Amino acid sequence: MILGILKESGTETRVAMLPEILPGLTEQKVEILVEKSAGSKAFAPDEAYVESGAKVVSREEIFAKADLLLQIHPPSEEDVKKLKESQVWISAFNPLWETGLVKTFLQQGLTSFSLDSVPRTTRAQSMDILSSMATVAGYKAVLEAALRLPTFFPMFMTAAGTIRPANVLILGAGVAGLQATAIARKLGAQVYVFDVRAAVKEEVKSLGGKFVEVEGATESKDAGGYAVEQTEEYKQKQQQAIDAQAAKSNVIICTAQIPGKKAPLLISKETVGKMKPGSIIIDLAASTGGNCELTKNDETVVYKDIAIIGQSNYPALTPLDASRMFGKNVLNFLKLIVDGEGALNLNFEDEIVKGTCITHKGEIYNERVKSVIENI
Ligand code: NAD
Fold first, then answer.
1. CB of 169 closer than 6 angstroms to any ligand 1 atom
2. For residue 162, what are the contacts with CB-CB under 8 A and spacing of at least 6?
C-alpha cells in the first residue's frame, strides 16, 4: 500500500507526518510518497524524508498513485474532484460542522476518515489529534498573552515596589483550558477557571487554578464527556459570574466549545468594556464563532484598548512539536487500518475505525455525523 503525505496550503506551517515517524510505517511495508517541500516550514527538508525511506514527488503523482492520502487540513474542492473511489482520504475536516464536504464525499462514494472524530476513549488517547493540538494551543495562547500584556504575569517584590500578579480567567477547562491553566500558573499568574462541567473542578484545583462556581449547569451522560447547551436561566447566572470575574482580569483565554455547534457566547462587548485597558482576550474558539462577541476569526480586534485575538491556529506557530504530535497520533491510527503486510484493512467492528470513518461506499459510519446529516 502507498501512503501519500500532502503539503499544506496557505499559512499552515505544520506537516501531517515528520520524517522521524516514517520508520514506524516502512517496517510495516507501507510505501511512502511525500509531496515536494511538504515539511519545509516544519524544518523537515525533503532530504530527511528520503533518508527515512520516502520518495519525494509532485502533488499530482500522489493523487495518481497513493492509496491513502494524508493531510492536516480538509481537501480543497479541486482535491476532492481528483480523488478516486479506491483511495482513502485522511485529514481533520470537522465533519459535524463541514456538512457540505461530507455530502460531497458521500455523493462521490469516497472513503474518508476525519482525525478529529477519533472517539475520546482511553484506548484512542494515543490517536487523539484534538488533545494534541489543544495542548499546543493552550500553551501558546498563554505565552502570547504574557508577551503582549503591558504588565507582568508573576508577582514581583522588588526595591521599586511590589508588583501584583496578573489575573487570568480561563473559560472552558477541556484540554486547551487545562493546559493554559498549568502554563499560566507556572508563569505565576492567579488563574480563575470556569466550565459548565463540574467534573473538571478537581483538575483545575490540582493545577493551582480557582474554579468559578455557577450552580445549575446542564450535563448529559450521552454527550461523551462533552458540554451541552445550557438553559436561559443558567446562562444569565453564568453571565453575571463571568462579568464580575472578567472585570478583574488582565487576560481571558476562551476555549469553550460544543462539538458541531457554534461556540457559546460568554463575553459580551459590554463585559469587554469593563476590563482594564491593555488587557488581552485570546479566543481559541474563534473558528466556530468565538466565546467573545467581538472576536473575528484569524484577526485581532482592538476595542477600548483591549485586544481580542481570534487566532485559531496556534499549532501552526509551533510547527515542529505540533507536527511531531500530529504525526505520532496518525501513526497510531494507521496501525489500526493497515495490517502487518502493509495492506489496507478496514475493520468497522472496531469502534475507533467506525467512529473515525465519516464516509465509505456511499454510507456515513460515524453515528453523530450521520444524525446531523439526516436532520439537516
Ligand atoms: P472542547 O474543546 O469540546 O471544549 C472545551 C471546554 O469548554 C470543555 O471542557 C467544555 O465543557 C467547555 N464548555 C462548553 N460550553 C461551555 C460554556 N457554556 N461555559 C463554559 N465552558 C464551556 O473540549 P475538549 O478539550 O475537546 O474535551 C472534551 C471532553 O473530552 C472532556 O471531557 C475531556 O476530558 C474529554 N477528553 C477525553 C479524552 C480521552 O479519554 N481520550 C481525551 C481528551 C479529552
1. no
2. 155, 156
